[in-house]
User: Fold these one by one.
Assistant:
Number 1:
Amino acid sequence: MIECKKFIFDVDATLVDTQVVIDNIWKKWCKTVGVRYETMSKYIHGRKIEETLSCIGMEFSNVTEVNKVKTIATQEMKCAKAIPNSHDFLSKLGPDCWSIATSGPRAVATTSLEASGFTLPKVMICAEDVARGKPAPDPFLKAAEALGAKPEDCVAVEDSPSGVLSAKKAGCFTIALLTSHTREELKSADLIVNGFDELKLTCSPIGTYQVHRAY
């Protein structure tokens, strides 16, 4: 059991089932520049668009290509759906007790969350809000600060190795969902579960939350 005051969630493959959507975004982009998707797919999850493009090749690391990916992503994310049981989990949290920390641009994150039926949280830390994206700790440090909490009083929920590393570096207790990567790839997380149905959330009389394994 872990006790905490606030929660910080990634978006893609954590709250929103965007695994196939993200693959399609980059497949479409690859066709526009003649890059084989198979050679760059390992760079796409858990990174800012700019960082993914830099990994593929510095010739693609420019505003034109970033905007091209954003345009494709904003359209594709309209098809996004919620991760099973994510709505139920969030319904137990107060509106001031959770935030987003995503590598995605704000417009894309907003589109996917709203398409999946979520009410946008008051705090959303997106790609534009940090100089260094995941796996640097900046997104989670900034989210904790905006929530008025210390990172060690926050539980981070992630799905990618870079996201887990980012949250751990920030000092958050980190839960990894097995929605996009293997248990071995996520082994640095404090707790690994298949999905939200394996988590039980309760609220204490003093306003803190306890997270237990449901079974």
Number 2:
Amino acid sequence: MKIALSLSLAFLGATSTWAAKASSSSVQRSTNLDIVPDKFIVEFTDESNSPPRGSGVTPIDRWACRQKFTVTNHGETPQTYTLSHVPAGTAATVDPNTMFVVDGPVSLLPDFATVTFNTPKFTLSPGQSHDVVATITPTKVDAATFPVYSGFIYVTSGSESVHATYLGVAASLKDKAVIDNINLFFGVQLPLVLDSVGNVQEEPTFVGEDAPTILWRQAFGSPHVRLDSVPSNTNKPKAEKAASGLQRFSLVLDAAETTVAVLRSLNFPSAIFGSLACKLYGNSRYPKDADILVFPTSQDMDAQALKRLIVASAPQYYYLKNARDPAATYRILWFRSSSGRECKVDILVPGTTGMYLPTIPPARIHWTRNLPLAPFPFVLLHKLKAWAENRVAPETYKRVRQATDAADVHRLLEITPHIRELQKNPAWWTDEELFDAHLQMHSVIHVRQYCAEFPERAELWRALGFDVPECATDSTV
């Protein structure tokens, strides 16, 4: 049974728009004067348009918070009391452009709440008490920032002064997104259903340790969160999926063709590899972005310098975006089509650490659709390398890619014309123009790991010249 994840939230207790509280620790007392706070009472200024008290769903401009407290004269003579308000900080706690709270330290805003009193000045005889109602109204700022207001209410009599504090949120907590449902932190859209080793799955068997694990992340607090696993009925019709894939493929092709043209105008040869090259060689899966290996004419020209040149050459199509990792020093190149659709373009150069990327001779480049493709053997072994590295990556967003990488490798192995050419030369993977000694060595290991994971495909690799043991397991590599 395929399953889909359903999340429901229940806010327990009060969910009123203005969350305010006074306690004994927030109240000062003196010899002759007490301020005794009653419970905070949320009342709506516009009674005709307001929902029932405490529902917390009215806009900021329709409500005010009323605080009732009692002033008692414990002195021996009549006293005149004056009420005043001293605002404290107002903090925007949520980034309005995202669903996430603002990283500290949180800066304070000059937009303070206003406070009015039913009787701002009054006189009490000895032993007499008076109820005061303070109406606290926030300034109209962006509710999407969930601004937190605070301040002090002072009661002064002669040289004696005491105060109580207030604190409130001028927004409805029911409007705050609680579950992170974007791909910012993990590189894949959350929430996810994972198997026992961290791979994304849709059909758990519930046999042995194969039970679903939920990967989810809260963007905000909630007293109660419920997760339901339900049958999946969200699959798109095949025709709709195909149309969506073709549209994405058209965008990626546009990004690749435009980027290659810009690079040629700058006299930089290049070659397409990765998922786009797989597709152009005959893979059925539609790629999501373009991977381009560029061959600079100067050793001083690294990938970041190339990206800046591309943006400067065609700013109407390209821009740079910060990497997901805030500690990263590189930026990511994005292509924006004339229709406004966007696609990531990965630029790499020979010598990139851990990539084993050579400078491919022009005669080895295969041209199709005005695009220079890296040789098929190069594309195959680098896709295999991606699978091997992603399956053991500590980052979840990388591990979830291994299933797609494995499927890409399988499809490449079934592209008969190219595979037959490789079978004619069993030592093709030792070609030093395409594979240095490190990649040759690692390819042997990666093939055995792949065959241990998918033993039914071992014969395909043996036909390509690799020595794969009959009972290949991870322990044998």
Number 3:
Amino acid sequence: MTMRMMGRVRLNLNVGCLATARDPATLRAAAAELLATAVFVFAAEGATLSFALGSTTPPYPYQQHDNRGGLVAVALAHALALAAAVACTLDISGGHVNPAVTLGALLGGRICLVRSLVYWAAQLLGAVAGALVLRIATGGVRLPDYALAGGINGLHAVVLEAAMAFGLVYAYYATAMEQRAGAVAAPLAVGLLAGANVLACGALDGAVMNPARAFGPPIVGSRQWTNHWVYWVGPMVGAGLSGFVYEHLHLVLARTQAQEQTTNRGTTRRA
């Protein structure tokens, strides 16, 4: 069974056609991704900013060992904001709200490359819009930058981000993309996992898990790009691997087992 399963594992990359980018359904989905990403970044960045006020250099208060209450509040804000953003767009665009999730769906064959490019553009613009509104609303306060904790280098942070993104996309597949959970349960499961990741790794590297989330604040005004590559490479690698593993190993194994059970039942009846 294992050999047959491995023989069926292949990259199912659908390029699509250029007309997909102009399709009204794609544009509606992109608009939904833009708005949802803006809402998520505004809330998540706003929560982080609330605990960064009064601190001009990293680590910010919620990253310090004597202020774990701030980390809990930031994690809760991330969880609730992401759950709401996913719930609002689940039936329109799939509720990605994250370029890494879109990459996982692309490598899993759930979305074509052209549609992915449109999603990525919308998500990045949404992140910039959310950060810009937050900065305007706070009177031009500089948005906080992500920083690596002492003893954590870029490679360590990449592994952390990849691991968190892997779990996040796996949760997307198991709930939202497979539609095994309801319209409330799926976004809640994804949001809770994101919040748990912030609790686990927020004090280490910021627990971004989302390249768009890291992209908006520097564009709007902080202009700090130190270690910025970490928040692209880590989530993209982890999410892409998660989408491939779920689609081509987990589902292939499940289908193989179902086929074998059907064959065994047929053999038993003939006997």
